[in-house]
Amino acid sequence: MIIQIALFLQISYYVAAQSPSNPVCAVGTFLNNNICDNCIDNCKSCSSKEKCDICSDSFFNFVWSSKTGCLPCPSGCKECCDPHLCKVCLSGFSLEPINASCTPCNEGCDECSSGTCTSCKPNYYLSNGKCLDCGNFCKNCISKDKCQECKEG
User: Is 28 left (phi over 0), alpha (psi -120 to 50) or beta?
Assistant: First the structure.
């Protein structure tokens, strides 16, 4: 198994050499002397080890000297511009416009806005801005009394 993983990594690093006229590297890697090399941690797209162009979700680009890197966004944040201000929250969180922070949605809530649920996780149904449990035997429902799909077992 370890040999297979090592071989896979070796092959992925040399993908660029297979097509020298138009080399293509995988996400999180960059072309370095016809070899795909890894970007820095938490970087989705880079042009060198010193320059991250696009950070992974929940991280933001920061610059120091002539280098760039990726730092974590605040808790619950998917896109931010610094460690304190969030632009887009992760699923299950709501963006608070006053302080640009993400607050968790209520239990069972998949998406919410200003504390009001707009969609629910599986096994919950939406009722007056809240997600309520479908019950012990129901996997998917439209109300407490209307089960659309039963749980297995």
Answer: left
Cβ contact 94:105 at 8 Å: yes
Beta strands in the chain (DSSP E): 29-32, 35-38, 43-48, 51-55, 59-64, 67-72, 77-80, 86-89, 93-96, 101-104, 109-113, 116-120, 124-127, 130-133, 138-143, 146-150
**Is pLDDT of 13 > 60?**
no
Instruction: Give 84-121 pLDDT, tens digit per residue.
Output: 899 999 888 888 888 899 999 888 898 888 778 999 88
Q: Which two tokens stand for residue 37?
A: 């090399």
